[in-house]
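About this split. The held-out portion is used to measure sequence recovery: a designer receives only the structure tokens and must propose an amino acid at every position. Recovery is the fraction of positions where the proposal matches the reference. Here is one held-out target exactly as it appears in the evaluation file.
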């Protein structure tokens, strides 16, 4: 018995599953569908028939369509840019108008105008006349059962009856819902056109409703605009009236402020400003004259004080009195000069003239003093006048400042009044324009083409029903095919067997015939040495011998998980093939409970066999059967030599049997041990320790996966290493459909090559 050094089965299987999750084998999927093509075809046919029957029961429906253009240019004579104005048409206009066309308000108007509540198609039916759909059917229970369920709380008691107005409201809502369900809107791509369609069981009704929807839409748009205009006009009227009162109040406030200002100050601001300007001018003149008089006074006083010639000064020279005195002085000076030329100095006449001259000079100085005094008096008067004017100017300035403060308030009131007046005038103008617009309102949409009475019913519903039924049938067929494929619990390909079991597949043995007996299979191998079966057996023999190149196995054990796996037939074919290749071979039937080799060779069961050799009642040469055609030696277990008191496990675990196997391995080139299934008895596990190679047989598309996994686990749990598994009784034609690559696929595809 050899030790097992293979990787753990669970790790191998998990790695395979992980790899399978990452790869989708489309060819395998198509192959699965192709294998179940008849199931898919039958399901599709059933779906098509049901669809046809369902479509034949559909009530004919008629659809009428009207086309509506949204956003046309409208006339606006109030604009300065032109008469025609393009309507504002944004990206959200069509969805918005679609919602308007589906609005409850518009549908109610259509129902009222066409009196749809009394139309036969929409007239509410009595409760007993309402057809209940099959999916809405509920079995009626006896009254006693219903009462009992209400008593125990399993069923709620019926509620109070609805009032008449509530029933009517619900009927009205149901009618709106039915009409809305018949409306279909389809915006025409790259345009502002909406197709408004209505579907019903009456062709004329469909056309009437479609046209009424478009008509009510236009009416609703016009009424909406008129309502908006009227609302704006009403608001403007109220606002204009308010502004009118506000303007009057503001203007009255300005006038009242001006009146209070006039009353408080006694004069207007303008008069005060004029007076202030006049006083300022007078004050300036007075101050200028005062300055001139003071300068004149200083100059004259200084001249008199210095004794200068008063005639040199313009003020004195222009005085008539001074001029008279100066003329008199000139005459006296002339007389004095004349006297001095005629009389001597000291003459009383000269003295008298000189005295007269001095008197004149004193008079001149006295007159100059009077002139200076008069100037001084004028200066004092001017100073008093300037002071008086200054006081008056300050008073007027205070009054002007007070009036200015009052004027600021007045100007604020004037600005408020002006702002109210401007707003009032603007709103008044807008009110007049709005009143004019009310008579010029038009809708920005029009009907391109009204709905016509449809000539025939729609076939879309019937076709849709048939198509959906066909699709459902196809999907059901595909689902059944994949479900059956998933429910399959067997092995259909060598790759699948290797991945799940974790053992190498040594070969696949084809099915020789559907109803061929086992001895006929043996005859087929002899008669057709080049057949696919013979080639598969030779491939199995080669795989087993090359499993250990250094020490080719001589004792080969065949087993399986459950009976009827083709194990005995495969082991017999293996031995026959070795014999045909010139090697000495013997096959030993180790199934002491249900021997099968005698049935395979179709020979009598009354001669000596394996048990006779073990108990010593017969020699090996007497018990071995020699197949006459091939010379194969067979050591069978005969039914005649079996005893109920014999334990098969004790026999196979005995030293005699072990010595027999060793003796056979020394006498023959190949010893084949045909053992019973591992899940039925423990014999195979006992014999496994004596074999050089262990081959596990799995029947194609028959043995349950769990049985195979459990059978392999039973053997490997004793630290026994399997040489590999062989897939038996493979239907190569069908197997080629389950595998798209590998030996099984090409072997099934080119099976005619072996027969040739």
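Reference sequence for scoring:
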């Amino acid at each position: 018995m050899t030790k097992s050094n293979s990787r753990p089965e669970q790790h191998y299987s998990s790695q395979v599953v992980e790899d399978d999750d990452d790869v989708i084998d489309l060819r395998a999927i198509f192959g699965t569908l192709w294998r179940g093509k008849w199931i898919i075809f039958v399901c599709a046919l059933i779906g098509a028939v049901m669809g046809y029957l369902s479509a034949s029961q559909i009530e004919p429906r008629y659809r009428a369509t009207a086309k509506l253009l949204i956003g046309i240019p409208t006339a606006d004579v109030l604009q300065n840019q032109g008469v025609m104005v393009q309507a504002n048409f944004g990206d959200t206009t069509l969805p918005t108008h679609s919602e308007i066309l589906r609005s409850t308000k518009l549908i109610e108007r259509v129902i009222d105008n066409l009196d749809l509540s009394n139309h036969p198609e929409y007239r509410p039916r009595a409760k007993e006349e309402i057809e209940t759909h099959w999916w809405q059917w509920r079995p009626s229970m006896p009254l006693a059962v219903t009462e009992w369920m209400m008593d125990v709380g399993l069923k709620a008691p019926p509620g109070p009856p609805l009032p008449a107005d509530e029933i009517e409201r619900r009927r009205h809502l149901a009618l709106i819902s039915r009409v809305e369900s018949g409306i279909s809107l389809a915006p025409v791509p790259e345009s502002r056109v909406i197709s408004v369609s209505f579907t019903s069981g009456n062709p004329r009704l469909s056309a009437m409703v479609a046209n009424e929807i478009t008509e009510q839409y236009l009416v609703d748009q016009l009424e909406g605009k008129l309502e908006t205009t009227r609302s704006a006009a009403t608001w403007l009227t109220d606002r204009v009236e308010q502004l009118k009162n506000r303007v009057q109040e503001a203007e009255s406030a300005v006038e009242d402020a001006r009146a209070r200002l006039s009353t408080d100050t006694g004069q207007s601001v303008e008069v005060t400003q004029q007076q202030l300007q006049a006083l300022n001018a007078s004050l300036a003149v007075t101050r200028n004259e005062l300055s001139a008089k003071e300068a004149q006074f200083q100059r004259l006083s200084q001249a008199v004080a210095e004794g200068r010639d008063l005639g040199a000064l313009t003020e004195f020279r222009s005085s008539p009195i001074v001029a008279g005195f100066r003329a008199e002085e000139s005459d006296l000076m002339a007389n004095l000069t004349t006297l001095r030329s005629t009389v001597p100095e000291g003459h009383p006449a000269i003295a008298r003239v000189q005295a007269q001259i001095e008197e004149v000079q004193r008079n001149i100085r006295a007159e100059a003093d009077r002139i200076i005094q008069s100037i001084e008096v004028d200066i004092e008067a001017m100073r008093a006048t300037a002071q008086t004017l200054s006081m008056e100017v300050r008073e007027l300035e205070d009054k002007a400042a007070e009036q200015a403060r009052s004027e600021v308030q007045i100007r604020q009131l004037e600005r408020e009044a002006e702002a109210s007046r401007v707003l009032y005038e603007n709103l008044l103008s807008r009110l007049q324009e709005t009143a004019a617009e009310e008579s010029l309102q038009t809708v920005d949409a029009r009907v391109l083409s009204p709905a016509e009475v449809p000539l025939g019913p729609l076939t879309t519903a019937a076709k849709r029903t048939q198509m959906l039924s066909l699709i459902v049938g196809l999907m059901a067929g595909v689902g059944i095919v994949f479900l059956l494929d998933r429910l399959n619990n067997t092995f259909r390909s060598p790759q699948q067997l290797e991945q799940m079991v974790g053992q190498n597949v040594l070969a696949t043995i084809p099915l020789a015939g559907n109803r061929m007996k086992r001895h006929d299979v043996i005859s087929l191998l002899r008669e057709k040495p080049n057949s696919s079966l013979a080639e598969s057996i030779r491939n199995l023999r080669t795989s087993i011998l090359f499993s250990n190149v250094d020490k080719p196995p001589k004792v080969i054990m065949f087993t399986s998980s459950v009976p009827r796996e083709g194990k005995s037939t495969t082991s017999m074919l293996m031995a026959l093939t070795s014999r045909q290749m010139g090697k000495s071979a013997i096959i030993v039937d180790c199934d002491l409970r249900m021997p099968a080799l005698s049935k395979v060779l179709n020979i009598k069961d009354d001669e000596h066999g394996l048990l006779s050799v073990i108990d010593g009642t017969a020699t090996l040469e007497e018990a071995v059967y020699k197949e006459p055609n091939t010379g194969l030696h067979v050591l069978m277990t005969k039914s005649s030599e079996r005893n109920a008191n014999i334990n098969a496990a004790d026999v196979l675990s005995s030293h005699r049997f072990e010595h027999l196997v060793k003796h056979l391995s020394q006498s023959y080139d190949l010893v084949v041990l045909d053992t019973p299934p591992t899940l039925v008895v423990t014999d195979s596990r006992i014999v496994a320790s004596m074999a050089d190679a262990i081959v596990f047989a799995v029947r194609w598309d028959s043995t349950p996966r769990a049985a195979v996994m459990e059978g392999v686990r039973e053997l490997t749990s004793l630290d026994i290493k399997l040489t590999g598994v062989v897939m038996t009784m493979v239907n190569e034609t069908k197997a080629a459909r389950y595998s798209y690559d590998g030996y099984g696929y090409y072997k099934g595809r080119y099976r005619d090559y072996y027969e040739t």
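Annotator remark: The longest helix spans residues 348-438.
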